[in-house]
Amino acid sequence: MTDTNDEKADVKHPRSGRERWYKRPTVRTLKRQAETEDRDLSRDWDKRDNEQTRLPPSEEIHFGGVVLTEAFTPSTVSALYETLKRWPAESESRRQERLEGLARSRGGSRGGWQDLGVVRPAGQWVMGPGYNDADLPPGVDAVWLNVSYVTPALAMVVATFTLSEDSGDLSGLLRGDYESRAVDTQIRIPGRLGAVRARLPWSRPARYGVGYTMSRAEDEKRRACHDRIRQHERECSKWFFAKFPGRFARAKTEDRPIIRMLFTSEVIPYGDGHPWLRPVGLDFALPLWSSTDLKGWWLSEERWPYRDGRHAMTLAARRGDAARDPTDEETLESNWYLTQRVGSDHPPLAARHAITALLAIYADRLGELRDEAGVRRFPRRLIKEGRRLDDYLTGDGLDAATITSDLQVLTEDLTIFRWDVPEFTEHREHLGKAPTKREPMELIPSLRDAIRDQADRLASDTTLTTGNLRASAELRQAIANTRLQRFLLVLTFAAAIIAVVSILVTSSGH
To answer: Cα dist. 437→287, 428, 433 in Å?
Structure first.
């Protein structure tokens, strides 16, 4: 889903400087006028957009839940040990089993996973391992938790949040009527201190210009669905990263991996490109992946604005296609059942998807450190720069070096990498005539190649950059020591001269 703004305006309103000051409109008034002056022109557009994107009465679209992942690296794994010690368990032996499983994985045992059970709101029935938590966000019906031991240096906790049917229902928003409005309104005042005066709501400029962007009715509908989904995601993230404070908990929101789950009742997502699927981003995707192991699921990547998640995936399905139980041919189409299936079948995929986000964070941090090294500041703060380099080397630098080494081993054998990971195949039928004759790609092999390339580049860049920065730091320290020695030598020579002069003066006095 992307926010699009179709119309731009830049209206100039020159005014005579002879007009009395108190009769001029304020900056606040000018902004309000800009937001309402084109309403008559946009009514026909709004009517057309609302009708085209109105959800049919027989259709329903739900935001079923979200999958969040936390990474525990060598510098943050102690937090996972503490969490597992406090995590409710059926018995003390079960708690010790979880801790021993983590210790075995850190000692070199590769692969495996552990189930932490389900977390439900207070007063709700809990089946099997799990507990009730009164701090769960409103609208969350359950959280399914797994610990995946991807490599000896990397453990992932995957949480699948199930939203209740009512809280995740987007149908009402998609059937509503919306109006175009001006957004990002800017007042430009020429002359001295114009930029400052344009920020003062009570300023009354004699000459000014007004610029704004028109957000159409469809954009407003998209924004309403986006805000509802983002609200749930923020609340779920706050709960999850407070319980499991790993590396992603310290990262920016847009750098965290996330998988959103959207369900339709009648139409196949991305199938016929219905206009009423556009506000939720289910009309078209490129690339688009269809599930081969678990029928009925569709996967798209990065359908949302960059600022809301550059490592975002959308997992969508028509309820009837993805809800069939192969054991008894019973169709279970509730959010509970569908998200529970995701929580049991897709954690390995979520963990591998999170690896790409983790490597990107390390690459960004390394790039910032490299770029800052070339900045010449005055005065130089050598101690502060040294501490920053030391923090990186003992934190993200050590993690990156260890994890990239493990990932190079993990990605050597595709069979091991894709073990227990549901497969998706590239879908190109929605593009019409295929642009090329190549065979459709598979998601997991392409994901494995991407991770391997990321790890190789990061390992090489880390070695070169940290080596150069360390050599530069040592050279600067040597220069500082030389300067200090020279200063002490000059100081010693000056002290000797003063002492000789003092002796001569004393002798001449006698």
So the answer is: 16, 11, 10
Residues of the chain with pLDDT below 50 are 1-12, 15-17, 328-330
Enclosing H/E stretch for 382: helix 382-394
Per-residue pLDDT at 4: 43
CA dihedral 256, 257, 261, 262 (to 10 degrees): 70
> Considering the entire predicted model, what is its pTM?
0.82
178 phi and psi angles, rounded to 5 deg: -130, 160
Kindly give the pairing relationship between strand 154-163 and strand 140-151.
antiparallel
* pLDDT for 111: 67
Measured between its terminal Cα atoms, the distance across the chain in Å is: 96
What string of DSSP letters covers 87-137?
S--SSHHHHHHHHHHHHHHHTT----EEEEEEEE-TTS---SSEEE-TTSP
CA angle 412, 414, 419 (to 5 degrees): 120
Token pair 């009354």 in the structure block, residue: 204
Angle between helices 217-243 and 39-52 (to 10 degrees): 70
- In whole angstroms, give the CA distance from residue 396 to residue 392: 5
In order, the DSSP letters of 164-220 are: PTTTTB-HHHHHS----EEEEEEEE--STTHHHHTT-TT---SSEEEEEEEE-HHHH
Which residues, 6+ apart, have CB-to-CB distance to 67 below 8 Å?
Answer: 158, 159, 160, 161, 258, 259, 260, 261, 315, 342, 343, 346, 350
**What is the layout of strands, in order, in the sheet containing 208-215?**
7-13, 208-215, 181-188
Q: How many CA atoms lie within 13 A of 240 on its CB side?
A: 32
CA distances for 282 relative to 146, 260, 269, 296, angstroms: 28, 12, 5, 14
pLDDT tens digits for range 89-144? 878 888 898 898 888 888 776 667 889 999 999 988 887 788 899 999 999 999 99
